[in-house]
Each structure stands twice: as C-alpha cells, then as structure tokens.
Specification:
103 residues, Arc Repressor Mutant, subunit A, 3-stranded antiparallel β-sheet, 6 strands
Length: 103
C-alpha cells in the first residue's frame, strides 16, 4: 500500500487507487500519515481535521472515520490495520504502526 499526501490524499494498492470516501476520512488519514510512528491524541486529531471549531459530535465522527479506514485499508492489505485506540492517563490515543510504509 502506498499513500499519496501531496495533492488529493490517496491510498494506492498496486496500480489502483483505494476508494477512501469523503473529505473527512481523507483528512483523518492525512493527519495520521503526517504523524506516522507517533502517538496522536484525540484532541490533536480534532485540531488537525476540524480546526479550532470541531462539531459537538466530533468524537463520534472521528471514531466512524477511523473505524472505516481500519476496515477498508486493512481488508485491502490482507491484514487488520494497526490503528489502535488505547487509554493512557484517561486520554484515548491513536497509533498507526502500519503507516510506517509511507513512500
């Protein structure tokens, strides 16, 4: 899997683009790719994706985007995508270990 972040955000498997959905899933993927191999707090993702004015439902929207990306990209790679929600000091974080494969 290759990821394109200059221009429209894209995931490419072989020579075919993977349909990522609308602008928010693409923005979440771009945010995770820009922070590859680092822990990213929910608050940081809110800021990167929604800016200074996230909607009241931002947590649910983020979870939907991450869940959709996990299913879509994991299925295409033949293995579950390692984007994990975990708790550290009561703050959910996201880690993208498979995102190391950025080229």
């Amino acid at each position: 899997m290759k990821y394109q972040v200059l221009g429209p955000v894209a995931a490419i498997l072989g020579d075919r683009p993977v349909p990522l959905g609308g602008p928010k899933p693409r923005a979440v993927l771009a945010a995770l790719l820009s922070q590859a191999n680092q822990f990213v707090s929910e608050q940081r993702l809110y800021s990167l994706v929604w800016g200074d004015r996230p909607p009241a439902t931002v947590r649910g929207r983020l979870q939907i985007c991450v869940s959709g990306l996990r299913k879509l990209l994991g299925r295409r790679c033949g293995a579950p995508l390692a984007v994990l929600f975990t708790r550290h000091r009561q703050t959910p974080i996201v880690r993208g270990s498979r995102l190391r494969r950025v080229r």
